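User: I'm preparing a small set of examples for a lab meeting where we compare how different chains pack in three dimensions. I only have the primary sequence for this one, and I'd like the structure in token form so I can line it up with the others. Please keep the answer compact; I'll paste it straight into my notes.
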Amino acid sequence: MKRLVKAAFFIFLYYSGIERLLARLIRPNAIAVLMYHGVCDRAVLPPEINFHLPPCEFEQQMRALKSRYEVVPLDDVCKSLAEGKPLQKSVVITFDDGYRNNFSYAAPVLKRLGLPYTVYVATSFVDSDHWIPLNEVYWLWSEGKLDSVSMREARTQIRTSASETLVPLVARAERPSVVSKAAEDSFAMLKWKELETMARDGANFGSHTHTHCNMAVQSDQTQKRELLISKQLLESHLGTPITSFAYPYGRREQMSSSARKNIVQSGYLCALSAEQGLVTAESDRFSLPRIGYERPIWRFTGELLYQFIKQAWKEWTT
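Assistant: Understood. Below is the structure token output for the 318-residue chain.
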């Protein structure tokens, strides 16, 4: 019942124009870092896991952001936090993993609207026909070669295993060289020439490890290798310092004190998690929270406004 009431309220706020007005007026000292993965027409992903957004909805969300908020580069936020400067209400756009659909569908929209963004790249998959192991599992499920129970078991195994551990199910997967357009759009990874084009057009990039691994279960040596290889590859191809990192999976159980130490020692200025929340002056610079996108548009704008109102109220009452 509460969810229905909240939905009705968000619908009213959006279509009445009140939400847009409030979004411009409320000014907490906080930043919403939005977390996306991919943009494509038809994602071949389990409905409860689908982390891609259709292009028309993505553009609608980007236009809504442009008309309501200041959208800033993540690097500016990291520098402000590192230098102890005050934060002003704004939004940051990020993408995890490094899907080719970021180049095909998302980048043209963001360039046209003049919005800055950062893509976190798992560098071992760049210029490769290999997919992130989780996506191999989702593809098997989409082809009917894996039932839902086995898919979830394999997903848990991959998310909790060290990178050196062979996942038998993925190792046995024999994906043909040619797959459906929907699968290619969903899971194919960026090429270096595409990253370079995006960078020339204003995109920023960060590390997402080299192999998209759970940092919390890696050895100290592997953590350092994952951080340094990805950083060096991105810097050598793009010719610019790589100063931010995003944890694969990004929940508390996929972060650790040793990973944090190695992120700092590897020269990163900040690290992003997938924990929900706004970035404030009190946030840990090496486990910054983000906000996942919502659908449809009235829920997306309503939830974002709700987060800013909560923070404004907290600042006003303390």
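A couple of notes for your slides: The chain has one domain: 2-291+304-317. The chain has a mean pLDDT of 93.

User: Perfect, thanks.
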